[in-house]
Amino acid sequence: FRDTTTEQLSFQRTCEACAADSYPSRDGTTCLTCASGNYSDALRDCACTAGQYLDETVTAGTKTCVACSNTSIPGGQQFNTRTANGYYECVECKKGQESVDGVCKCLDGYTDANAFCVQTTLITPFLTTYDIRFAEQIRYRSVEIGSRVDTETLPLSSDAINYYYTQGVAGCLVYNDPQFCSLLANLCVLNLGDLDSTVCKLYKEVVQTVPQGETEVRGPILYEEGVKPYDSTIIKTKVSFATNPVTGFVHVMPFFLAKFNLDGSFVSIEELKGQFQFCPHFLDEEEVYKNFGTTYENNCEIDLNDFLSSDPDFFYELYLRDSDNELVSIPVVIDNLHAADGTKPNES
To answer: In angstroms, rounded to a whole number, what is the distance separating the alpha carbons of residues 100 and 200?
Structure first.
């Protein structure tokens, strides 16, 4: 049937049947015939074969099945859910893929990295040195077992790392895409920054190392060697211990967070407030730790099960907005960081 309603705001639709051997258009306002005679009463529409999409030419009053290119497949809005080929357009296959019988598959000599395919010879050296079989293992140390703390490590396989690891390596180290470098950084964070882990070794030794001919690292800086000086050439902000500082000075540090999804995609920039206040606290403690010259500590015991069913996991990078409105990356000390030799270099 086609829609014959004439008034735009009518609450009652009127329809009339299309003539034999014709079917409603995509917007339902007219009836069109099948240019190739490929009528299908079962589908109540023109039937296309694998790898084809349905193109409408309203002026000619026809629908025509058109083959997608060898790097695209029928996709987008599905006009007929009774057939796998009921689409009005083609969508491009992922990078390194081609269309085979209407399905995107990796080209010969390419490896499937989930988000795309990558040339096998380019990614193999990384996956050989930093094997995914070891990369997917996360070691949890000092795990509580009953009433005691076990000094042994608890290794567990991570489905998230198994799924994203090859994708991150290919996207970051082969295609130099910042999103996938952030993805690898997130996978290292899931390993608690442990430099005895394969993911973190890869990140520190390859990703964070400045490639030849480039001036910046490819992803977030997770590891700082020594103490990084922050002076007036880096942070152009004047601070004061006074709660009501004079003009030109600040007492409350203007911290901001860059927020990312697990896959490395950027979400937003937001002001640091109480995002990391997991323990019960008074309202006036919500942001007290942002006051210059303040030491704040809040301890409690929390049930991790409460966080497993909460909102999607986000990853954050901490920045300070200086007086020039520039965001300066601020390192955060992880006291429990384990070095490759098992020591804790940040433990005071």
So the answer is: 37
Label each residue of 197-245 as H, E or C: CHHHHHHHHHHCCCCCCCCCCCCCCCCCCCCCCCCCCCCCCEECCCCCC
Cite the DSSP H helix spans in 69-158.
120-129, 132-135
Are the beta carbons of 198 and 134 closer than 8 angstroms?
yes
Residue bearing tokens 């086609």: 2
Residues 6 or more apart whose CB falls under 8 angstroms from that of 114 comprise: 163, 164, 166, 167
Q: Which of 102-111, 143-152, 204-213, 253-262 has the lowest mean pLDDT?
A: 143-152
pLDDT at 3 over 60: no
Structure tokens, 316:
């954050």
The distance in angstroms from the start CA to the end CA of the chain is: 76
**Which one has a higher pLDDT value, 80 or 216?**
216
Q: Are 48 and 84 in contact (CB under 8 A)?
A: no
* Residues shown for the chain: 348
Amino acid at 283: L
Residue 200 phi, psi (nearest 5): -70, -35
Percent pLDDT > 90 in the chain is 32
